[in-house]
Amino acid sequence: MKLDRNTYGTVLAVYVFCAAVIFALWRWVPYWWINLPLTLGFLWVCGWQTYFHMVPDRTPVGSDTLVSAVSDGKVVNITKTYEALFLKRDVIMVSVYMDFWDLHANFWPVTGTVTFAEYFPGKHLLAFKPKASEENEHSCTAIRTEAGKEVMFKQLAGGFARRIVCYAQEGMAVRAGEQCGIIKFGSRIDYYLPLDARVLVKEGDLVKGITSLIAEI
Fold it and tell me: What pTM was computed for the model?
């Protein structure tokens, strides 16, 4: 695994803050039995933040017909809905929620060409709430496969997420399993799939980015 290139500053800031607090504890608090557990706690935070922003080295399973997971997380919703922004048709929506303990790097779900990419500012409701899909800060990307199937996915900020990174640009050729961005802290991915897609997950399933299949199209 390697550290995501967009998070060097974030991780460095965490390290500097934790180091400053640890220094202050041992410099001005004369009780080792207070300093030791607090020091271990701040070192754990450093380790967690390093892990959180890592990009895993995994074998891709997606293709132009198999939709792979954009992120790690838990499937929280599968429903039929109308996608009014770009696709403008009925679709199957699959929502995957990421909590604090999931790696938050994101990956292209299918191989194809980006046909739509746009960022939308918004609220920071808890990401598992249904209305977060429309009201929260998010980034939308649609990809058309060689066979003409179109898959759209939405990177949603959550209650604590404050930054979405997406590399998508219209006309870009992308390959399933390669990194497409990262979301900072708890958040959600919504997939918008054709109605004839065969969904391969169910609510409650845990998925891993790159190596878990969401659907066959």
Answer: 0.86
